[in-house]
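1st attempt posting a full record on here, be nice pls
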Amino acid sequence: MNRVRLADVAQINPKWNLAAHSDDPISFVGMAQLSDVHGCVMSEDTRKVGDVRTGFTPFERGDLLVAKITPCFENGKIGRATIGNRWGAGSTEFHVVRANAALDPAYALHFLRRKEFRSAGKLRMTGSGGQQRVPASYVSEVKIPLPPLEEQRRIAAVLDKADQLRAQRRQALAHLDALTQSIFDDLVKGSSSWPSVSMESLAAPTKSSIRTGPFGSQLLTSEFTDEGIAVLGIDNAVQNSFQWKQRRFISEEKYGQLKRYTVHPGDLIVTIMGTLGRAAVIPDAIPTAINTKHLCCITLNRTLAVPEYIHAYFLQHPKASRHLRQTTKGSIMGGLNMGIIKSMPISLPPVKLQQTFAMRVAAVEHLKDQHRTELAELDTLFASLQNRAFEGEL
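the predicted structure (as C-alpha cells):
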C-alpha cells in the first residue's frame, strides 16, 4: 500500500485563519476535556475570541487534536475536535492535524490512535522529566498508508463499528458501577438510627489489626526477588478494587522477619502515600503476602463489620469523604496516617444488613468481571483489526 508523509495530506499545526470580532464566541478545550478513551472532545467551554487569540492553540471543528506532552500522549489523548462552534482554541500542549481532500479524518484518527504510533512517538520525545513532548516533526513525518478515499472511508467505518462495540461494553460497566452506588445509597437511607462508631472500634481484637507496612531499612527494594512471598503496594488498590499489577516478592527468609505485616482475606487496604484514599478488599484467594508502607491494612472484627460494607462506606459515604478532607487539610504532603483512619466515624448498620449488601454487591461484581473479560477480548480484536487495516489486509 502506498505510504505518504502525514504532512503531505494534512496541515500540521495550522495558523490562525479567523476573521471574527473579539467578542464573538469560540469553543475552548483543555487537556482534561479531550477523552483518552472515546477519541473526541467530551466537553468544552465558551470564551471570547479576543481572550484566546494569543497564547493558545487554534483549531477548527473536525480537526484532530494530538496531546504532545507526557503522559497524555502515551495515554492516548488523541481525538476529534467535536465542538459546537466552527472555531476552537485550547491547550498549548496540543498538536493539530487538519486533513486535506485526499485524507479522510476518521481514517486518520484511527491511524493516530494506534499503540504503534504512540510507542514510536515516545521514543522521539524531547525535553526532560515530566516536561517531555512529542515534536511536530514526528507527526509531520510519520508515514500513513493512503488507499483511495472510498477505501479509507470503508476502513474507518469497519473500525468505527468495532470501536462502538468496545464503547458499549464500557458503558455497561459504567452502569454497573452506578448500580453499586445505588445499592449503597438504598442501604444508608436508614442510617439516621444507626450508631456512629470509629473505624478503630471495628478492628479485630488482635495486636496490629490496623497497621502499615515495614518502614526504612526493614524492607529495601534491593531485597525484592523474582518469586516468593507477594508484596502489595499502591497499584494493587489504586482502582478501588484489588488488582494484580506489578508483581513484587520477598524471600521466605525475609518473610520470616516481616510476618506481622501479613495481609489476610477480607482485610481492607487503603493507600496512604502517593495516590491517597483508594481502597480495596483483599480477595479470598490471596496467596501469602505482606503490604508495603504505602498501605494501611485493616483486619476487621467480622462479628461487627463486613469488609464489603466498610469498603463502600470508605469510598462512597459523605461522612467518610468529609472526615478525610478535614483531617488531611493543611498537611504539607496531603498524606493519610493510621490516626486519621482509626478515627474515621462509621455509621454502622446491623451485621445482617451488611451481609445482604455484600451479597448484592458480589452479584454485581460477578457481572462486571464478565464484562471486563469481554472488553479485554474486544480490545485485542480491535488492535488486530487496526494492524490489518493499515497493512492493507482488511
